[in-house]
Each structure stands twice: as structure tokens, then as C-alpha cells.
Amino acid sequence: xxxxxxxxxxxxxxxxxxxxxxxxxxxxxxxxxxxxxxxxxxxxxxxxxxxxxxxxxxxxxxxxxxxxxxxxxxxxxxxxxxxxxxxxxxxxxxxxxxxxxxxxxxxxxxxxxxxxxxxxxxxxxxxxxxxxxxxxxxxxxxxxxxxxxxxxxxxxxxxxxxxxxxxxxxxxxxxxxxxxxxxxxxxxxxxxxxxxxxxxxxxxxxxxxxxxxxxxxxxxxxxxxxxxxxxxxxxxxxxxxxxxxxxxxxxxxxxxxxxxxxxxxxxxxxxxxxxxxx
Length: 278
Ligand code: PAF
Known about the structure:
Number of domains: 2
CATH architecture of the largest domain: 3-Layer(aba) Sandwich
Bound molecules: pantoate
Distance between the termini: 39 Å
Helix content: 25-40%
Shape: globular
């Protein structure tokens, strides 16, 4: 596996990797890799002959006071995992590479990025959209893969790629969960053993809304009961818990078409997000 740190080396390395027209898949990450990321690489290998990954903890998507400084960094471990998973190339740009002095451009995806995570973390999706646009332009992959765990992020990225006419297919990969149901996340590393146990209320709350609305219970009652489950487990604040349309992420007050239950809430100092299909 080739590790590229100098951005000037990226273009020739990608050209060599593509050889005689091999399909290239990109797996963008912020490192602190877990089995969820490996599922992205596995899915990528099924969709392209060559897989490249990026590791970049993007300061633009963290607001002041968020966990940029304590975000887990474990480069040697990540590189070993990516090599083992079958990545051919890893690009690890520096902040100065992606945001040189004078950098002044922001990508804002109106609508899709403004509710839920966008409302709870103002500026977050502008940071995601800006870095993903830069990563896609720099690597020009045939396909890029993102986890469904960040469901709204996936919707924002699909919108921006369509709007900017970027020649990359965007694929979502189902969330990977621990055996007890907790979605894998780099931020799970912040949880104490007691918080880790109580965090299980999050997938349970999502599942309770799914089951209740499927069996015809009114959405508001299902959501209120699930909020109580979260509060009893010690989640505070609950930023949102809602039944939404899968494509537009607009809230639904009755089950219709393709729907998703989405939630974000804090346990101790750790903010967790999760979602499931209905
Ligand atoms: O999902 C992530 O890890 C990040 O938001 C991404 C897409 C790599 C952009 O920094």
C-alpha cells in the first residue's frame, strides 16, 4: 500500500494506480478506523479494481469547543488496517495542503444540510461539503463510499455531487453495529464502561419508534416514548429524535414511503448519532 503525504505526489500515484483504465474507489475517513470503515473498503473492492482511502481530521467540520483536539488519532493502527483490508493507496493531506493561507471558499448545501445535525452543529456540513468536494476533485474517483451511520451527511454529499456535476458515483454502506446493537463510531472510544452500557438505549429507542409506527401507533406517541427511554438512560440533551423521509429528511407525522428514524443525543461528554430504516 502506498502512503502519500505530499499532495504533489498524489496525481502521479493515482495515474499509476488507474493503469490502463482501472476503476478507482475512494473511501474518505478521519482515521480512528473501526470495522465500519473496513466495511466501506470491502464494499469499495466489490465496486472497483483499485481502492484509495484518505485520512484527514478536517478542522472545518468541528465548531469551536467541539472535540477536534481530542478526536482519536492512531495513524500506525489505521494504516495497518487499511493495508490489511486491501487498500492500494492512502492519502493523508495536511491542513495546510487542503486549506492553504488565504483559503476562502465554502461549499454550502442549502436545504438538506440545514435541519437536524445542521441545526445542532452550525457550520458542520459546510465543513464536510467543502472537504469532500476537495477530496473528490483531487482524486477524481469513479465511486466514493460513505457510511449510512452519518445518514444526513450522505444525503448532503449526494446533493453536492449532483449539483456540482462531479463525475463520481456516491454509494452508501449500511451501518456496522456491535453485537449488542450499538453503532460503531470513532467517538465510542470516549464512553466510560457505564456510558457504553447506557448508550444502548439509543439503538433501542430508534427500534422502538420503527416498531411502533410500523404497527400503526401515532408517530408523536412513538417518538415521545423513545425520548423517555433516552432520558431514562441518561442522554441529555437529546438534540433530535424524529421520523423523516429517507430522501428529503423532512419530518413525517405519519408513516409514508421510505422513512428513517434519526437521532442525536449526548451521554456524558459524548455526542452519539444513529439512524435506522423503517
Ligand atoms: O464521515 C467522516 O468521516 C467525515 O465526515 C468525512 C466524510 C471523511 C469528511 O471529513
